[in-house]
């Protein structure tokens, strides 16, 4: 038993930082990402005896984290992970906060249009830099199937951004019309 604990921690050590960052990126929040990571570690530690090949520790661990994320998304809306707060976005130095918030809002809408499994796939490939071959091993699929899944996820995100853009444009036009109407009312001379 003691050797299993030592083996688990020795296999986890080189993956620890990257796996923790993956969870943070997946949920879009540091604290909630750390919670997800800790839950996944507890699960991985308790299931470690079922791991047959120690060479496949990395994909096995990431599968546990993805499953934990998927389970968390199924919770009621008030228990779901929330995106980075606007206050935190505003505290970032060097960029226009409005542009950051707008881009974050659009990307968040696009990302949330994906199923949890697709969110994990996109995060691993685009943000973590996992090659398609590693993703194929993780998901136990062919590289072609992974490329097709990535293509579908990107298309779904693009479609969500376009839909959001259309709605945003309509809202902007309505706001402009309302503003112009108020300006006209304010500029109209009062009748005596």
Question: How would you describe this protein?
Answer:
It is a single chain. With 192 residues, the protein is an all-alpha fold. It is 75% helix and 0% strand. The radius of gyration is 22 Å and the shape is elongated.
Summarize the structure.
The protein is mainly alpha-helical and 192 residues long. It has helices at residues 2-12, 16-27, 30-47, 57-73, 86-90, 97-112, 116-127, 132-139, 143-187. Mean pLDDT is 78; it is low at 76-83.
Which features would summarize this protein structure in a list?
mainly alpha, 192 residues, Rna Polymerase Sigma Factor, Chain: A
Number of helices: 9
Summed up, the domain count is 2
- Structural classification: mainly alpha
In CATH terms, what is the fold-level topology of the largest domain? Arc Repressor Mutant, subunit A
CATH class category of the largest domain: Mainly Alpha
pLDDT < 50 runs, ≥5 residues = 76-83
CATH architecture of the largest domain: Orthogonal Bundle
Distance between the termini: 93 Å
Number of strands: 0
Radius of gyration, whole Å: 22 Å
Name the helicity range.
over 70%
* Integer average pLDDT: 78
Share in β-strands:
under 5%
* Major sheet: none
Architecture blueprint of SSEs:
Blueprint (H helix, E strand, L loop, with lengths): L1 H11 L3 H12 L2 H18 L9 H17 L12 H5 L6 H16 L3 H12 L4 H8 L3 H45 L5
């Amino acid at each position: 038993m003691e050797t299993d604990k030592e083996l688990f921690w020795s296999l986890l050590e080189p993956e620890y930082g990257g796996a923790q960052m993956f969870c943070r990126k997946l949920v879009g929040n540091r604290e909630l990402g750390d919670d997800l990571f800790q839950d996944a570690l507890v699960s991985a530690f308790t299931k470690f005896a079922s791991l047959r090949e120690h060479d496949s520790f990395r994909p096995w661990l990431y599968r546990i984290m993805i499953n934990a994320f998927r389970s968390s998304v199924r919770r009621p809306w008030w228990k779901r992970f929330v995106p980075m707060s606007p206050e935190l976005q505003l505290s970032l130095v060097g960029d226009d906060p409005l542009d950051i918030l707008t881009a974050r809002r659009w990307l968040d809408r696009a990302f949330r249009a994906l199923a949890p499994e697709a969110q994990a796939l996109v995060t691993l490939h685009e943000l973590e830099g996992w090659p398609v071959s590693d993703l194929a091993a993780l998901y136990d699929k062919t590289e072609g199937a992974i490329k097709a899944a990535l293509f579908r996820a990107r298309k779904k995100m693009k479609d969500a951004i376009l839909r959001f853009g259309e709605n945003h444009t309509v809202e902007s036009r309505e706001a402009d019309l309302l503003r112009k109407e108020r300006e006209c009312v304010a500029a109209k001379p009062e009748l005596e």
